[in-house]
Write a structure and sequence with these properties.
2 copies of one chain form a homodimer. By secondary structure, chain A is mainly α. Chain A is built from 7 helices and no strands. Chain A has a single domain (3-239), classed as Phosphate transport system protein phou homolog 2, domain 2 (Methane Monooxygenase Hydroxylase, Chain G, domain 1, Up-down Bundle). Chain A has helices at 3-46, 50-81, 85-121, 128-151, 154-184, 189-221, 235-239. In chain A, helix 1 (3-46) packs parallel to helix 3 and helix 3 runs antiparallel to helix 6 (189-221). Chain A is elongated. Chain A binds chain B through residues 61, 64-65, 67-68, 71-72, 75, 78-79, 82, 84-85, 88-89, 92, 95-96, 99, 179, 182-183, 186-187, 189-190, 193, 224, 226-227, and chain B through 61, 64-65, 67-68, 71-72, 75, 78-79, 82, 84-85, 88-89, 92, 95-96, 99, 179, 182-183, 186-187, 189-190, 193, 224, 226-227.
């Protein structure tokens, strides 16, 4: 290779790395946006703030636009750079991740719509403590999954995967207590159902954060753990 | 190009086409499996067949295994063949499609689990007519979306996209009548909630079938319509 073509190929590789970094940066921006959507949707519920709920609902378009934009960038990188090995895994992980973030955005919209219904109904606040608690839990999972993605941090990704079981059991117990409340006070059925949909949306957000963490393990280790029980993972092998 | 290398490149291109065909074939097999999972889960509910429900629940692993296998094949095609243009779009569409089919499988499992709860509870059959009706509707959407994928059939894909609104309004009306029933007979709350979860799972299956149809349009036309309102699509332009 002569000096000119070496410089040329260094230039290409620098440009390529820059494009991969950009993909990650844009994914993080999308992650930050959906995290804010969750936070604002839950605040709208807890504070009975219908304008904030409407804002979240209307802002879902921005999330969708980001997905289209990032997926487009990924397709262009695949077509032009034809990445292999870990670069290919990064692009595929970003494509999968935008799909989960987009669905988290949808769930945040659902929370906002149910918050609106509850605000208009002027009902009690049964289940709000659980909503607050679980929403903080899944937002932390989402933040950690994104950080793990940005840093290729296997330990943090594994921690998120383990966290999902805790969210599931908090969800189950909250649903059970809401069901009991409904039976005791049938007039509350409509409003309690709205809170149940909100809890279910939060539980789904936990699942998506868990998926994001699994993509981190895939992209760093080339190992697809999507359908392995977290308790059966050989973590020492993953951390090696 | 001399004759040997021409034969060689023809051989490669034949082999490549064969690999792409295989991806489609495996996707169709996965689609057939999840369609059967929905059908059996709903039959288990309607016939109170707890063994069939358990079978569906246990069979979810087969769906998951297929996803991993097909995704693996896609990654290998991307790494070795470095496809461009419509070939690249096909591989990306298959990756997206396996994700939706896997989630349809999850929803079928949820239906089976709720069918089990209902069978054990020995409750009435409130909402079963709606479940049967909506399940037939979304199964047809899924079948049509898969056929559209196999045949690159834009018209059929567009028909599926339009069908989703009909399912959503059937779902909303079924949910409303179940809510009324709950208020009239609070002792039914537990069992009616299970039927509600089943309806919601079916509605989600409709969404995923809709996604599959959108990927067909993406792969044939290179156009991402995921976040465009079906009523605002310029269909004549798409069919050109």
């Amino acid at each position: 290779m002569d000096i000119t073509s070496e410089t040329h190929s260094q230039h290409i590789s620098k440009q390529f790395n820059h494009e991969l970094e950009e993909l990650k940066t844009h994914l993080m921006a999308m992650g930050g946006l959906v995290e804010r959507q969750i936070q604002e949707a839950v605040s709208a519920l807890l504070d009975g703030d219908s304008r904030l709920a409407e804002h979240v609902r209307d802002n879902d378009k921005a999330v969708n636009d980001l997905q289209i934009k990032i997926d487009d960038e990924c397709t262009r990188v695949l077509a032009r750079r034809q990445p292999a090995a870990s670069d290919l895994r990064l692009v595929l992980a970003v494509i999968r991740a935008t799909s989960d973030l987009e669905r988290i955005g949808d769930e945040a919209s659902k929370i906002a719509r149910n918050a609106l219904a509850l605000t208009e109904g002027g009902n009690g606040s049964k289940g709000f403590v659980e909503v607050r608690h679980i929403s903080e839990h899944v937002r932390k999972m989402l933040r950690d999954a994104l950080t793990a993605f940005a840093r290729f941090d296997i330990d943090l990704a594994l921690a998120v995967v383990h966290e999902d079981d805790a969210v599931d059991s908090e969800y189950t117990s909250a649903m059970r207590s809401l069901m009991t409340f409904m039976m005791e006070d049938p007039r509350s059925i409509t409003s309690v159902l709205s809170v149940m949909w909100i809890l279910r949306a939060l539980e789904r957000i936990g699942d998506h954060a868990n998926n994001l963490a699994e993509y981190v393990i895939y992209l760093v280790k080339g190992l697809d753990i999507r359908h392995i029980d977290p308790d059966e993972l050989d973590e020492d092998a993953l951390k090696r």
